[in-house]
Amino acid sequence: MTVEGLSINLATVRQQWDMRQAVEACLTQGIRAIAPWRDQVAKIGLDEAARIVAANDLKVTGLCRGGMFPAADAEGRAAAIDDNKRAIDEACALRADCLVLVVGGLPQGSRDIVHAREMVADGIAAILPHARAAGMPLAIEPLHPMYAADRACVNTLAQALDICDLLGEGVGVAVDVYHVWWDPDLARQIARAGASGRILAHHICDWLVPTKDLLLDRGMMGDGVIDLKGIRRMIEAAGFLGHQEVEIFSSENWWKRPGEEVLTTCIERFHTVC
């Protein structure tokens, strides 16, 4: 039987399987929606990855990731734009719902986060004509402020939506609970995103207490403190009824368990706590 409404971001089982193996395991457990990462696609080849998606009629809820726009010089910024255009083409080949953008942090040697955010908006503007022509939505994923310096200088839904409003059609947001659950303005900004049709993806996991590694110690749903059902209600009330995509980086726990156990647990928790 198909597990309706559940997608597995393949980072969740990246240490157990390659993309081909992960798809086979997901299908065995009735999961027909995935979100691969570009390195996983590259490992087996884009043509083969696209064939697997088409042959199994998979839902691809997103391709991870584009972004990383800020750079210390014009050459670096141009290289990022070129790479993002390639990422758009890859997302199209995989029939993905969107290309997820982790926008990038401060350029090396910089302390100017305002300028970094300007470079993000400029970078997205530069690739947006290519994305629109290809019909590929771009999903800005705001990351928790702990990543502002190195991974994403866009840290709240409000900041992401301001960029969306600036740039117009073809840009939206990926709402990852790990990054936004703490935001006191979350409910209002989810409603804002829904009113403009900007919600493109809904990522789930949990925030552990204590968190031992801010990047690689995400929790399985139900093991932490995030109000997953409450955020889901907000997102669905805002009009997004798409898949919940499990994305867990867990170097010392879930990446060390058998992949089948991870998927079984994802399904059980999706039904009971999400």
Summary, kept brief:
With 274 residues, the protein is an alpha/beta fold.
Question: What would your notes on this structure say?
Answer:
The structure is a single chain. By secondary structure, this protein is an alpha/beta fold. 43% of the residues lie in helices and 13% in strands. The chain has 10 helices and 9 strands. The protein has helices at 19-28, 38-44, 46-55, 74-93, 113-134, 157-167, 177-180, 186-195, 228-237, 259-273; strands at residues 6-9, 33-35, 59-60, 63-67, 99-102, 138-140, 171-176, 199-204, 244-246. A 9-stranded parallel β-sheet has the order 3-2-1-9-8-7-6-5-4. Strand 6 (138-140), helix 6 and strand 7 (171-176) form a beta-alpha-beta unit. The longest helix is centred in the middle third of the chain and has 22 residues, at 113-134. The protein is globular.
Structural class: alpha/beta
Q: Uncertain spans, ≥5 residues at pLDDT below 50?
A: none
Shape: globular
What value does the Rg take, in angstroms?
A: 18 Å
| Share of residues in strands | 5-15%
* Distance from first to last alpha carbon: 19 Å
Strands ordered across the widest β-sheet: 3-2-1-9-8-7-6-5-4
Order of helices and strands: EHEHHEEHEHEHEHHEHEH
Mean pLDDT figure: 98
**Count of helical segments?**
10
Notable traits:
about 15% strand; 9-stranded parallel beta sheet; alpha/beta; about 270 residues
Question: What's the helix and strand layout?
Answer:
Elements: E1 6-9, H1 19-28, E2 33-35, H2 38-44, H3 46-55, E3 59-60, E4 63-67, H4 74-93, E5 99-102, H5 113-134, E6 138-140, H6 157-167, E7 171-176, H7 177-180, H8 186-195, E8 199-204, H9 228-237, E9 244-246, H10 259-273
Parallel strand pairs: 1-2, 1-9, 2-3, 4-5, 5-6, 6-7, 7-8, 8-9
